[in-house]
Amino acid sequence: MVLIRSVSISNVAPIRHIEFETASRLNLFCGDNGVGKSFILDAMWWTFLENDTPFRGYSGKVSPQSLPQIKLVADTYTPIATYIREQQRWEYSGNPQNLRMPQNALGLYFRVSNDFIFWDPLRSNLPLATSLSQEQTWSGRPIDGTQMNIINGLFRDWLIWQRDPDQRKFNTFKEVLAKLSPPDLGVLEPAEPRRLFTNDSVAYPILRHSYGEVPIIFASAGVKRILTLAYAIVWLWHTHEENAQILGEPPQKTLNVFIDEVENHLHPQWQRRILPALLEVGKCLAPDVNIQFFITTHSPLVLASLEPHFDEERDKLFHLDLVHKNGSGSEVELKEQPFIKHGTADSWLTSETFELGSARSIEAEQAIQKALDLQKQARPKKKEIRDAHRELGKHLTDGDRFWPRWLGFAERHGVEL
User: Fold this and answer.
1) Beta-sheet strands, E only, within 148-289
2) Which residues contact 57 (CB under 8 A, 6 or more apart)?
3) CB-based contacts of 130, cutoff 8 Å, min separation 6
4) CA atoms 336, 267, 229, 112: torsion sign
5) 393-408 pLDDT tens trace
6) End-to-end Cα separation, the chain, in angstroms
7) Please, which residues have CB within 8 angstroms of residue 138's CB and are 6 or more apart in sequence?
8) What's this model's pTM, rounded to 2 decimal places?
């Protein structure tokens, strides 16, 4: 079992210094655009399970004396990546065997663009963690210069699994897909494949919705994202199990999963379901599999959906913020936040996690602020009160909770509205 226990990042990209201890099940990162949520996932993945693209993490803004460095503490080793300025490259250390990868970790990184990166320590033919575009994930990717495939792709594997008499992989895929299904579409489940075009002899995978059957090539962006995520998890796990059987080794019991913007492409109804569903996915793979998640989100509905499921012993919520320092510009700070139940999405929006002054429109918020400024005056002018009332009427609904306070104020100052 390989769990990431702690992370430290210093003088890299937008981050001067952050460090935090991780949770064993769910690590959720929130914060404004540009403060480094995705970057933290990138830095962790690259240091823990290097991918086949150059790391983009060095920033020239740091002083010559500062040392750009990323350090992770995991169960079996402590990988450290340090940027060597003179050579313009990253140097890696921390593995006792001086290997670039841990040999007992299984990892998946699912990105906003629907591509994903995976690492399986039992795939000896792949020296680096492998990146797959969404097209490759669906259509397959061969190993360069060979007749072997890194991955068959969702399209082919769907049909292979569906026709396999064993049905184990297909049943796992159906179970994961059912858990990730949105409530408005009902349970997403595979239907019988069929040909679609007169000049094409290929049978296409078909997805059954609550309103009918749809070929997966015509599925919506949200459905395609969920199909890709479900397939990536099931494919990685079952391929790893088969690799373990071929080599006569036990499969791993921990899967490290990174997901950037988990709500991407998803309707609010789906946003309320996706995170609780992901927490249940491990049970579909095997009874004793533990998944350690690192997930970013901008969605208050994702946070609200977690309220019945958050476990303080296994889950953590982190918030990144840009803090202005006197005389030294701004720095990104990361803080672990206590998980407080706010109930509604509106309340989450105005919490410390999302920091909005109001869940209303900007214009409504500005109108209310002007009204509040008037209420602070000892002797406000009647004309100003009427003008403020007209602005409030343009932007507030009839049932807005600000009205009783405002109307009482106007009445006390003798203004008929």
Assistant:
1) 149-151, 189-195, 203-209, 212-215, 254-259
2) 12, 13, 39, 42, 43, 46, 68, 70, 83, 90
3) 51, 52, 117, 118, 119, 150
4) negative
5) 999 999 999 999 999 9
6) 68
7) 153, 154, 155, 228
8) 0.90
